[in-house]
Design goal:
Belongs to the AAA ATPase family. This protein is α/β, with parallel strands linked by helices. Helix content is 44%, strand content 15%. It is built from twelve helices and seven strands. Bound molecules: adenosine-5'-triphosphate and magnesium ion.
Length: 315
């Protein structure tokens, strides 16, 4: 699907927390679907099995006494599509989507943030089937002992209470959390029934980089581009790094068009020159993750990270 095929995109009700009005606001939005997400086939398959099929066939799951709903924790280096795929899940299942940036509910009034959090879970239950996406989980999920502020601790406890409802009264509510630093999460959040399914979102492979570059160039005026050549030179680049690369190349084409007074498409050289001096933004994350994966990973939650590093010859 082309990115400009807006009318074919799923329309979903998106509920967001308005930081200024301190209230939930609703709007109808066209959401991305899996077709807009380059690569990540294994992850799409897993999400399909765990999330989408139960939602589309609830009668089978109910017959066997299984609740439809659940939770998933996406983790990985920045810019590798955690937020992007969560939105695409909502588009894919045409469920209502609540996007909660935790930072937004950290109210200055003591006691207000946990009410806000409770209201948001209530809203998700009222709007089921609903995907509740809790982004930037690290901003509160931190280890409770290590937290300086009592008020943050209360909020983590509230989150635990809400998540515990997942098996019973959260039927049809799908909670997706995202974090760059899962090792800082309160271990209580990772217990069964809460965020016990962790999914690693790695940087795109060479083949996936081809897909992403094509998606980002699609609909823009461009020459015949050797995308594979660029993909070969962008090992460890995140999806966001690739998006930036294409965006810089588009800027060059616009500048040239303005100078020449006629439309000048993106050339291969624009991409090559915007690649100059650019380094992948994911490497720093891997050097930190490696320590946690090797020395504090009793449950092998980070084995996927080590496997990725080995496969991609990262030290
Ligand atoms: N697999 C992908 N296919 C297409 N675009 C992608 C993909 N991965 C990342 N992108 C692009 O990169 C941008 C940044 O991705 P996103 O915001 O989802 O990263 P993130 O993992 O949530 O990062 P952070 O940890 O910084 O929040 C997206 O808006 C999207 O345009
Ligand atoms: Mg994000």
């Amino acid at each position: 699907m082309k990115r400009d095929d807006t009318e074919k995109r799923a329309k979903v009700k998106v509920i967001q927390f308005d930081q200024h009005q301190h209230a939930l606001t609703e709007l109808e939005q066209h959401c991305e679907t899996f077709a807009d997400v380059g690569g990540l086939e294994d992850i799409k398959k897993k999400i399909n099995m765990d999330f989408i099929l139960p939602l589309q066939n609830p009668e089978y799951f109910k017959a066997f006494g299984k609740a439809t709903g659940g939770s998933l924790l996406l983790f990985g280096p920045p810019g590798c599509g955690k937020t992007f795929i969560a939105k695409a899940i909502a588009g894919e299942i045409k469920a209502n989507f609540i996007h909660l940036e935790l930072q937004a509910i950290l109210s200055m009034y003591v006691g207000q943030s946990e009410h806000n959090l409770h209201d948001i879970f209530e809203k998700a239950r009222d709007n089921s089937p609903c995907v509740l996406f809790i982004d930037e989980l690290d901003s509160i999920g931190g280890n409770r002992q290590g937290m300086s502020q009592h008020h943050d601790r209360v909020l983590v406890n509230q989150l635990l209470i809400e998540l515990d409802g997942l098996g019973t009264f959260n039927d049809g509510v799908y909670v997706i959390g995202a974090t760059n630093t899962p090792w800082y999460l309160d271990p209580a959040l990772r217990r069964p029934g809460r965020f016990n399914k962790m999914v690693f979102m790695p940087p795109p492979s060479e083949e996936e980089r081809v897909d992403i570059l094509n998606l980002k160039l699609s609909g823009k005026p461009h020459d015949q581009i050797d995308v594979l050549k660029i993909a070969k030179k962008t090992c460890h680049f995140s999806g966001a790094d690739l998006e930036q690369l294409v965006s810089d190349a588009l800027d060059q084409a616009i500048e040239r068009s303005l100078q020449q007074g006629k439309l000048s498409p993106v050339h291969q050289t624009d991409l090559e020159s915007s690649l100059q001096g650019r380094v992948p933004s994911t490497l720093e994350w891997f050097s930190t993750a490696k320590n946690y994966a090797m020395f504090s990973d009793a449950n092998k939650a980070y084995q996927s990270v080590l496997d990725y590093m080995k496969r991609n010859k990262l030290k």
